[in-house]
Amino acid sequence: METGSPQNTGPAETGATAQAAGPVAGAQSEPVGTESEPAGTESEPAGTEGEPVWIALPPGLLKMRRLLLVVWLGLLALAAGLVPGLLAGPGWAAFAALPLAVLVWGWVMLERNWRSWRYAERADDLLLTRGVLWRQETVVPYGRMQLVEVTSGPVERHFDLASVQLHTAAAATDATIPGLVPAEAERLRDRLTELGEARSAGL
């Protein structure tokens, strides 16, 4: 009896050590899986760095253009309906429907045109895109900028808007960004002027 009990304890001890060795091997495999996660997260920002960050125009520009459209075409519809109606008869007042139809069409097209205007500040140039039927994209290199100015007419000042005009060495690359908030227009002017001077000095 005494000699049998030591023999039974031997295999029990080896089984316990085998069970203890199992979790140790599994614990060593977990850091390998966790080390691969940061490698995957670092590759995501690298793919998005080359994409430009587009900036849309403020809605105040659309409001201003629609108001001008209503004023001009409203006066034209009034004249087209009132003058023929008084001179030739009430039936000729139907000519007022033509300016009103153009007003409805222009109301929709102005919004589509406003949504098409976007600009993006990239590392070496300014990218500007606009147009609905004919899409136009302009690339203005910072090193070729000669003058950047902010303009604001009476109507634009009433709506608290301003435009940024970019003048370069080649007239084909000149561009204008309309309908900006004055603070954004001044920031963009100072930023583009600083980048233009830095690029021209580097050349």
Brief summary of the model shown:
By secondary structure, this protein is of the alpha+beta class. The chain contains five helices and seven strands, in the order H-E-H-H-E-E-E-E-H-E-E-H.
Helix-strand blueprint:
Layout: H1 4-48, E1 55-56, H2 59-88, H3 97-116, E2 118-121, E3 125-130, E4 136-141, E5 145-151, H4 154-158, E6 162-168, E7 175-180, H5 182-202
Antiparallel strand pairs: 1-2, 2-3, 3-4, 5-6, 6-7
Helix pairs in contact: 2-3
Write a structural description.
With 203 residues, this protein is an alpha+beta fold. The protein has five helices and seven strands. It has helices spanning 4-48, 59-88, 97-116, 154-158, 182-202, and strands spanning 55-56, 118-121, 125-130, 136-141, 145-151, 162-168, 175-180. The strands form two sheets. A four-stranded antiparallel sheet has the order 1-2-3-4. A three-stranded antiparallel sheet has the order 5-6-7. A hairpin with a 5-residue loop joins strand 3 (125-130) and strand 4 (136-141).
